[in-house]
Amino acid sequence: FINRTADDIIYFDNITFGETVPSTIALPITLEGGQAPNFSDFNGSSSLAIANPDASGANTTATVVQNTVPSNAAFAGVNFPVNNIDITTDKVFSLSVWSPLPNIPVLLKLENASGVNTERAAVTTTTNAWETISFDFTDEGQLTYQSVTIFMNFNMTDAANQVYYWDNLVLGEPLGVLENTLANIKMYPNPASSVVVLQASQEIATIQVMNLLGQRVTSVSVNNTTSTINVSGLAAGTYIANILFSNGNTQNINFIKK
């Protein structure tokens, strides 16, 4: 603007000093009513709010997140700040997901301003249709968080780009709970060395145990509300019990093999 020889109209916008603090939103994340998370994608991930391409079944809402994961990207994800999440009382999150492939691991990571973070994984069971998966933070000691990161197809690579959709990140009872009621599940011992016992308030049809790569390591037919799973042959680590109930609902619960 120095040594100008004529009068001009100059426009300014968004002048800031120091670090810009991203805007936060409150859970549940539904994308409805103009709700717009401040997405920060990384490792090639691309997240956009779009019209629901398959408004049927378990999710008929108008707007969802389209998440494109590039080929050969094992840790592509999206982060967004949220108003303070307190899991003192409610400790289970639910998420509506749509995947073109079965057995896709989805990781939900919570972080707070002090750098403390925790994460839980779940595995999809349905292809080309909406389903609700859950993330159980019952054993977590840290109770407050200020940001969320979601990884679709976590720690896996694919030769081609894949497009996933997610919606309705809820803490507590999931949206549409009357149509897809979560069962009350007790799993013990956790951590386990030889067997884990599952007790549910609904009849269980089958249980698949997956590792964090989304690979099935064992499965059992149940047709009862109680089941005992032999885990003595599994390597030490975290696993996901994907539970299919006789009414068609699914639910995931994590356990540790020591």
Gyration radius from CA atoms, angstroms: 21 Å
Q: pLDDT average, as an integer?
A: 85
The CATH superfamily of the largest domain is Galactose-binding domain-like
Main pleated sheet: 5 strands, antiparallel
Class derived from helix and strand content: mainly beta
Proportion of residues in helical segments? under 10%
Span between termini: 67 Å
CATH fold name of the largest domain: Jelly Rolls
Given as residue ranges, the uncertain stretches (5+ residues, pLDDT < 50) are 176-180
What can be said about this structure in brief?
This protein has strands at residues 40-42, 46-51, 63-69, 77-86, 92-98, 105-111, 117-123, 130-136, 144-152, 162-171, 185-188, 195-211, 216-230, 237-245, 250-257.
Note down, in words, how this protein is organized.
This protein has strands at residues 40-42, 46-51, 63-69, 77-86, 92-98, 105-111, 117-123, 130-136, 144-152, 162-171, 185-188, 195-211, 216-230, 237-245, 250-257. It is an all-beta fold and 258 residues long. It has two domains: 40-171, Jelly Rolls (Sandwich), CATH 2.60.120; 185-257, Immunoglobulin-like (Sandwich), CATH 2.60.40. The strands form three sheets. The protein has a five-stranded antiparallel sheet, with no helix packed on it. Strands 2-3-10-5-8 form a five-stranded antiparallel sheet, with no helix packed on it.
